[in-house]
Structures are given as structure tokens and as C-alpha cells.
Design goal:
single chain, alpha+beta, 6 helices, 5 strands, membrane, Ras modification protein ERF4, Ras_palmitoyltransferase, endoplasmic reticulum
């Protein structure tokens, strides 16, 4: 972990600055949301609410996030005229057409990454979590990093227990 201190000039002017802590992401605790194979081989993730979110993220927010992820994958894997035409064009051009334009699947994955970035910035990062794209883990699982360190979690859990 790396600690960043505010410039001394701000301290001299009486400005209160909180120290920022950089957390090494490899050492973060993680939550894994596995794939749900009851839908066959189509990419679909379990919708069960992770217990680590309790009190930090609402169940409705999580449900919206996971359903949006699942719907983007369902839309990406859907067989339609455009995807058939894209495949035929790829075969006819020895897949050189893929150098010129993205596939429908690639466009949907960019949409997924944009959605996850937005959700992370607006909802999950402020609550101390970060959702990785399922593509990072080979579509087997959604990995969620817990961005807070254990000492702040203990302090938070102690204050939560004392309020109850």
C-alpha cells in the first residue's frame, strides 16, 4: 500500500485535507458471483445478493446491475439476421472484415464495459466496491473487489454493532 500525503502548503493555510490511501488491487478481498448454468451455455450470472453489500448497496440496485449485465449478454448472443450476415461476410472475406469494423458481440461488450464503468463510478466505488467485467475472468464469474482495508471494515462493523 502506498500512502499519499497532501502538500505542506495546504496544511500551512489551514486547509483540512484527508490523506488518501492507495490499495493494491491484487491484495483486495474479493466477492465472486458465479455463472448460472440453469440457462444452458448462455452467459447468465446468479442474481443472489452478496452479503458484503448489506448496508452499503441496496438489493434493488444490485438486482438492476446484475439483470442489466445478463440482458447485455443475452442480447450479444442472440442470433439475428445481422449476426448471420456478419458471419457470412467474415467467412467470405477470410475475416478481414473484422479489421474494418467491430462485431456485434464486440459492440455489446463495449456497452457492458461502459455500463460497468458508470455503475462503478456512481454507485459501487463510493460504497467501497469495484465490479470487474466478466470478460476479465473468462465469463466464468463476476469478480467484485472490496476496496476498503480490513481495519476500516472492523471500525465500521464495530460502530454498526454498537448502534444496533
Amino acid at each position: 500500500m502506498v500512502m499519499a500525503s497532501p502538500p505542506q502548503s495546504l496544511w500551512d493555510k489551514g486547509v483540512t485535507v484527508h490523506e488518501m490511501k492507495t490499495i493494491r488491487l491484487e491484495s483486495c478481498r474479493k466477492i465472486f458471483v458465479p455463472r448460472d448454468y440453469t440457462f444452458g451455455l448462455n452467459v447468465h450470472f446468479e442474481t443472489q445478493f452478496p452479503m458484503a453489500f448489506r448496508g452499503k448497496i441496496s438489493e434493488a440496485t444490485w438486482e438492476n446491475t446484475i439483470q442489466t449485465i445478463n440482458s447485455i449478454f443475452a442480447d450479444a448472443e442472440k442470433i439475428c439476421f445481422a449476426s448471420v450476415l456478419e458471419t457470412v461476410l467474415g467467412c467470405a472475406t477470410c475475416y478481414c472484415s473484422r479489421l474494418v469494423s467491430d462485431t456485434i458481440y464486440q459492440k455489446k461488450m463495449k456497452k457492458l464495459n461502459g455500463f460497468l464503468n458508470q455503475e462503478n463510478l456512481q454507485t459501487y466505488n463510493p460504497a467501497g466496491f469495484h465490479i470487474l467485467s466478466p470478460m476479465e475472468r473468462g465469463l466464468r464469474t463476476i469478480e467484485i473487489w472490496i476496496l476498503s482495508d480490513q481495519s476500516s471494515d472492523i471500525a465500521t462493523s464495530n460502530s454498526n454493532h454498537s448502534e444496533a
